[in-house]
Recover the amino acids of this structure.
């Protein structure tokens, strides 16, 4: 069943019996003061979030795109202003998660998750691939204690899960 709408709409649908259960982001429920609706918080090993969840992004025009103004200093000024908002740890985490997704042949419809976070001076990447029915999964928690590029870290996680049978689960997803 496809379920659309804001949090209140979705909770009303649950209360009306239009669905048996909901999985919603606790961060949103916490922020809205709706924690009475939280019955369980999943651990990363139980349900790993989709790659890039919770990250904010700013998008600007490509520097290769023609200026729409006669002021040639405008775009460099915008890029410089945006650049100071870049948060290097978040960029690393999202780059690793997206590299994992890409290496798995990913898109937003695949049943997989990735969550990269700093731990002391290292990084830990949780990655998970599920069967379409959710009954089978392969997962890992992979540490990165070197200065490994985020993209290599994400690709290494994908290779490890592929070696554990993740592609078999995804192939079942495509035929389901």
């Amino acid at each position: 069943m496809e379920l659309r709408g804001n949090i209140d709409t979705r909770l009303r649908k649950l209360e009306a019996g239009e669905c048996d259960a909901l999985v919603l982001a606790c961060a949103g429920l916490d922020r809205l003061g709706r924690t009475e609706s939280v019955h369980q918080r999943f651990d990363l090993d139980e349900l790993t979030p989709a790659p890039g969840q919770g990250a904010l992004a700013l998008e600007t025009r490509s520097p290769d795109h023609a200026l729409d103004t006669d002021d040639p200093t405008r775009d460099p000024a915008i890029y410089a202003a945006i650049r100071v908002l870049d948060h290097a740890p978040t960029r690393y985490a999202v780059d690793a998660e997206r590299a994992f997704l890409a290496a798995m042949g990913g898109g937003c419809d695949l049943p997989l998750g990735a969550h990269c976070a700093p731990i002391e001076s290292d990084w830990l990447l949780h990655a998970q691939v599920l069967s379409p029915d959710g009954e089978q999964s392969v997962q890992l928690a992979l540490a990165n204690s070197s200065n490994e590029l985020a993209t290599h870290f994400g690709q290494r996680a994908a290779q490890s899960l592929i070696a554990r049978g993740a592609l078999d689960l995804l192939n079942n997803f495509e035929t389901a």
In short: The beta strands are 112-119, 122-130, 137-144.
